[in-house]
Structure formats: structure tokens, C-alpha cells
């Protein structure tokens, strides 16, 4: 049942008179209480501090069409006209993928986008009927750094995207067809299927077009209406139960939730002449077009609104060297990190330590091995994994609500290995001081390694891992010697050539 009864809210005054040509992509960061949004045509990204009401702006040399928060570093990930990228406040753009064919770039571009809880970035392109280029839907997966086409369309103006609260449905807007589609979404594998119509706005009698959107925790879809001066909330069954009208704005472009209680709706808009200079004359009739608005939803009969920062972009995992860490302390820290959205890789799990004597820990593990389920133990468990990585996984899982969707998604962000397999042998590895045995276990206290425990209870790959580790260390030592020699050679070259620098400077070099 809808929490509203055909309710209408009228908003007369803007929050910020920013004057965007094509304001889009609002995104609220609760950590900094900052609302980020873009002006596509002016190639700007605005940052509005909702506490002290200050505005800063970054200018880029390419249009920024959508933005998402990054989980592994400060700043934003984005889609530009050409593809998926990381943004730097100094105006530089680091591309992750540019899937558009070079011959299509002058005639089409990326438009709106969003992330799922795994950090996959999904975005669509706009069509070019003159050149026969259809709009498509793309996905960039930071885990394998691969960009794929997830729906060939054809679409017209790919626009607002949003997930249902359980992430089993992806909503996607095709603006010029005035349709909001819905897909079945497999969040574990990032697969779309069963595209079907959710809303056909023409049949509801609306003028204008569907634009950007967001989704609340009740499953309500909030859709901005380009050319119709409003935001409409659709129930999960497709009925309209709330309209927010902006009488001084013609082209409402997008919306997102934010604020300390996540109960504010931030709304962007575009100048009347955006994409159509013939409509410049309408700006006097709709003088607030292009400004930023906020709608206070506190007190409305809504559940806690969906946290749009849950879906953030993560490009690189943290790699932890398990050697010398205490099992329980490391597991508790990793559990908190993966629940917060961080991707974690642990290598050398066999070198993790367990406090207490080896004999005591072996007795405890043998006691665990003798536990059986009374009915069908092969199907119901418990399953007695003996590998070091599985022992760590079980410890982490025990500290994670793994039966809930949030916990299951968190465990998908975790990778555990014996030894240091490629490509992690070439990546920087870190330790966790709060979990290191030398810092957390009192001197003289007994401990054992997971490798010895696993070997004693039936893990059969100890010798294999030891041989592979020995080969890796020899290879790493040779690499280190070559790198050190190259550094010394470069330093010597700088010293030897320093006497010639003044002469070259005199010649203008």
C-alpha cells in the first residue's frame, strides 16, 4: 500500500542559484556532507557543502556526464563523454575504459550512470539517428578491469538508473521513448536479464520526458521529468502517489537523497535552452531553470531512505600479507572493512598465527572435526575445511551477518590465498598493526601457525606451497637486485651529468 494518497508538494525557491546549463547527476557524500553534481555542457563538477553553504567548482576539458563516490580513495569516479574514468580536482582525467569506437565519438556520448554494491559502474550512451548509432548500456567491472556491453539496445537517450532496495531489480530510463525499463539483476555475477517496461509515461498523460532517478527503501522510484516541471514518485507497482512540482523550472533533470537523516531530496535542473536554443525564450517564464533545489521529506510516511553511498566505485583492493597476524584480530578488522564496502585480498594465509600452544589448538580443531549434523551431514554440514585460507574465511564469516544480503555481498569482496599467487606477487602488500602478533601478544605467550595446524589435521598442500614460495622469493630477490642496480645507475648518471647542466642552460636547454 502506498504511504501517500496522491499527494503534491510545490517548491518555489531554489536552494542554490548556480545557473547550470545542463545540471545533472546529484550525489550526496555523508562523510563530508557535500552534494556533488555536474554541468555537462559547461564541463564542470560542482561541490556544495550543505553545512556552511559554500560552493567549489572543478573545470574539465571533457564533459562529465555522471559521478559516483570512490571507496578506495578520495575523489570521484565518473563517466565522461568517451568512457569510464577517475577524476582529479586539478582537472585531469584518468581513463579506465573507453569502449566507444573512435569513429562514433563525434556523434554519441555516455550519459547517466550508477554503481552497484560491488562497485560495478553501469552507464548508457545516447543515440545518433543520423549516423545509425544506437544507445547501449555498458558495465565497467573494477575487479577485472573489463568493460562490457550488457544491453545492445537499441536505446535513444540512455538516462536515469537505480536499484531496488534488495538489488534484484535495475531500473533504467530511455528518455526519448519516455519509458522506464526494469531488469532482473544478478548482483553476484553482474548480469542483466528479462528487460521489460516498468513505466510508459505517455500512457499516464505526462508531457515531457523521463530523466534522472533515485530509489527509496520502500522501492519507490523518484523520476525527474524533463520539460514537465516535476519529480514523480512511482510505487513498485507503477502507480504515481506523489508529485513534487517546481513551477519556476521547466527542465527538471535528476534527484538524489541526502542530508544528515537522508531525508532531503536534492534536485537538479537545466536551462530552458539546454539542447534546444529555440527554447531560450522560455527562460523568462521559468527563471529558476538551471538552479539547485532541496525538498525536505522529514515527517513524510517513508521508511529510512536508501543510502545512495552504499553503491560506490572501488578500483583497487587492499592486499594484506597474512604473515605474523593473529587470526581473531585480523578476522575482526577484515570483517568490518568488507562490510563497509572495501575489497580485501589476504595472501600467505598459512603464516597467520593463533594464540595458545599448538597442542591446545590441535585438540580444539579435532573437537570441531568430530562435530556432525544429525540429519544428512554431507548436505547440512558443518563442513570441515582444513586449508589455511578456509580457516581464516570461517573466522571472518563468523563475525559477518553472512545470511543477510549485506553480509553475503561483503564476503564477495574478500579473496584469500595460500602463498602469494600472481598478480599479487607484484602488488604492494600491507600489514595491520592492530592485529600483528609482535604488537598484540604479550612476550613469552605461546602461539602456533595456521600452516602447521592445517597440515596436522589433513591439509595436503604444505610442501607444494613451500616450494612455490621458495621460487617466488628467489624471483623477487632477483627483481630487487635489478631494481637496486638500475636506481644506482640512474643516480650515478645524474651526478656525472651535473657538470654539463649549466652549459646546457646557457644554450637554452
From TrEMBL:
Q: Which domain of life is it from?
A: Eukaryota
Which GO biological process annotations does it have? Answer: L-ascorbic acid biosynthetic process; translation
What does the record give as cofactor?
A: Zn(2+)
Q: Where does substrate bind?
A: 109, 111
Instruction: Pinpoint the SMP-30/Gluconolactonase/LRE-like region domain residues.
Output: 22-271
GO MF terms here are: calcium ion binding; gluconolactonase activity; structural constituent of ribosome
Active-site residues? 211 (proton donor/acceptor)
Gene3D superfamilies named in the record: 6.10.250.3250, Ribosomal protein L13, TolB, C-terminal domain
Provide a GO CC annotation, any one: large ribosomal subunit
Chain residues that bind a divalent metal cation: 24, 159, 211
User: Which keywords does this Swiss-Prot/TrEMBL entry list?
Assistant: Metal-binding, Ribonucleoprotein, Ribosomal protein, Zinc
* Function, as annotated: Component of the ribosome, a large ribonucleoprotein complex responsible for the synthesis of proteins in the cell. The small ribosomal subunit (SSU) binds messenger RNAs (mRNAs) and translates the encoded message by selecting cognate aminoacyl-transfer RNA (tRNA) molecules. The large subunit (LSU) contains the ribosomal catalytic site termed the peptidyl transferase center (PTC), which catalyzes the formation of peptide bonds, thereby polymerizing the amino acids delivered by tRNAs into a polypeptide chain.
As for family, the record states: Belongs to the SMP-30/CGR1 family.
Q: What is this protein called?
A: 60S ribosomal protein L13a
Amino acid at each position: 500500500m502506498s504511504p501517500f494518497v496522491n499527494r503534491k508538494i510545490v517548491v518555489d525557491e531554489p536552494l542554490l542559484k548556480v545557473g547550470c546549463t545542463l545540471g545533472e547527476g546529484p550525489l550526496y557524500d555523508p562523510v563530508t556532507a557535500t552534494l556533488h553534481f555536474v554541468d555537462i555542457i559547461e564541463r564542470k563538477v560542482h561541490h556544495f557543502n550543505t553545512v556552511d553553504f559554500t560552493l567549489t567548482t572543478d573545470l574539465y576539458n571533457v564533459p562529465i556526464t555522471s559521478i559516483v563516490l570512490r571507496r578506495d580513495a578520495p575523489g570521484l569516479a565518473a563517466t565522461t563523454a568517451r568512457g569510464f574514468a577517475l577524476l582529479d580536482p586539478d582537472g585531469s582525467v584518468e581513463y579506465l575504459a573507453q569502449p566507444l569506437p573512435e569513429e562514433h565519438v563525434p556523434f554519441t556520448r555516455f550519459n547517466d550512470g550508477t554503481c552497484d554494491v560491488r562497485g560495478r559502474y553501469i552507464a548508457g550512451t545516447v543515440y545518433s539517428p543520423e549516423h545509425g548509432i544506437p544507445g547501449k548500456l555498458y558495465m565497467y567491472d573494477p575487479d577485472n578491469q573489463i568493460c562490457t556491453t550488457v544491453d545492445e539496445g537499441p536505446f535513444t537517450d540512455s538516462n536515469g538508473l537505480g536499484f531496488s532496495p534488495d538489488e534484484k531489480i535495475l531500473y533504467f530510463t530511455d528518455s526519448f521513448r519516455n519509458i522506464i525499463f526494469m531488469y532482473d539483476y544478478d548482483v553476484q555475477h553482474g548480469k542483466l536479464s528479462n528487460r521489460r517496461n516498468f513505466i510508459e509515461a505517455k500512457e499516464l498523460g505526462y508531457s515531457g520526458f523521463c530523466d534522472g532517478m533515485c530509489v527509496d527503501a520502500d522501492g519507490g522510484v523518484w523520476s525527474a521529468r524533463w520539460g514537465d516541471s516535476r519529480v514523480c514518485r512511482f510505487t513498485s507497482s507503477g502507480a504515481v502517489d506523489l508529485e513534487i512540482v517546481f513551477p519556476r523550472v521547466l527542465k527538471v533533470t535528476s534527484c538524489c537523497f541526502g542530508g544528515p537523516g537522508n531525508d532531503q531530496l536534492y534536485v537538479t535542473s537545466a536551462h530552458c535552452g539546454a539542447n534546444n536554443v529555440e527554447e531560450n525564450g522560455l527562460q523568462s517564464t521559468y527563471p529558476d531553470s538551471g538552479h539547485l533545489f532541496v525538498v525536505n521529506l522529514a515527517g513524510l510516511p517513508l521508511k529510512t531512505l536508501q543510502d545512495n553511498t552504499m553503491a560506490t566505485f572501488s578500483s583497487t583492493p587492499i592486499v594484506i600479507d597474512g604473515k605474523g597476524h593473529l587470526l581473531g584480530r585480523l578476522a575482526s578488522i577484515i570483517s568490518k572493512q568488507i562490510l563497509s564496502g572495501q575489497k580485501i585480498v589476504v595472501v600467505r594465509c598459512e603464516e597467520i598465527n593463533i594464540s595458545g600452544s599448538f597442542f591446545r589448538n590441535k585438540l580444539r580443531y579435532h573437537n570441531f572435526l568430530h562435530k556432525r549434523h544429525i540429519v544428512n551431514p554431507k548436505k547440512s554440514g558443518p563442513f570441515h575445511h582444513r586449508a589455511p585460507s578456509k580457516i581464516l574465511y570461517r573466522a571472518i564469516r563468523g563475525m559477518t551477518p553472512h545470511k543477510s544480503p549485506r553480509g553475503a555481498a561483503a564476503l564477495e569482496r574478500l579473496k584469500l590465498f595460500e602463498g602469494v599467487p600472481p598478480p599479487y606477487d607484484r602488488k604492494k602488500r600491507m600489514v595491520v598493526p592492530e592485529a600483528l602478533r609482535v604488537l598484540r601478544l604479550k612476550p613469552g605467550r605461546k602461539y602456533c601457525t595456521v600452516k602447521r595446524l592445517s597440515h596436522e589435521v589433513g591439509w595436503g598442500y604444505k610442501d607444494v606451497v613451500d616450494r612455490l614460495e621458495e621460487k617466488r622469493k628467489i624471483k623477487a630477490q632477483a627483481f630487487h637486485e635489478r631494481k637496486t642496480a638500475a636506481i644506482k645507475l640512474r643516480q650515478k648518471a645524474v651526478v656525472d651529468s651535473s657538470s654539463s647542466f649549466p652549459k646546457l642552460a646557457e644554450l637554452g636547454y
